[in-house]
Design goal:
mainly alpha
Length: about 120
């Protein structure tokens, strides 16, 4: 069950701010769709959840290495503070939804992969 008030949903719909990553996961699960569908990256509603055993940072690191980047180049190219990237490694937590969207566009990967819900 997703617990959020109408005002929060209204702010999401009007683009005032984005739901946090855990809320994105809950919304996608509740509707049985991919996070990519929620954000308009795909029109395909069909989604099979694949639980990743790796941490967000491990998935990010794999993408970064496959792309031939360093944390510094990702930081500069995506306009994400390098201190935020350092926290992903040490805290082992998701970045903000805004940062996730930047990474999806930069690495041409799925939001679900970054959230640990999909395998590509």
């Amino acid at each position: 069950m997703i617990r959020c008030d109408k005002a929060a949903i209204r702010r999401w719909l009007y683009g005032m701010y984005l739901p946090d990553p855990l809320t994105v996961i809950k919304l996608a699960d509740a509707f049985g769709v991919s996070a990519d569908y929620l954000f308009g990256f795909t029109d395909n509603k069909a989604f099979t959840r694949y639980e990743q055993k790796s941490t967000f940072y491990e998935r990010y690191k794999n993408l970064k290495e496959a792309h031939g980047d360093t944390d510094y180049t990702v930081s500069k190219n995506c306009a994400i503070r390098d201190s935020a990237i350092s926290k992903w490694k040490t805290i082992k937590d998701f970045p903000s939804t805004d940062s996730l969207l930047k990474l999806v566009n930069y690495f041409h990967c799925s939001m679900d992969y970054l959230l640990g819900r999909g395998n590509s």
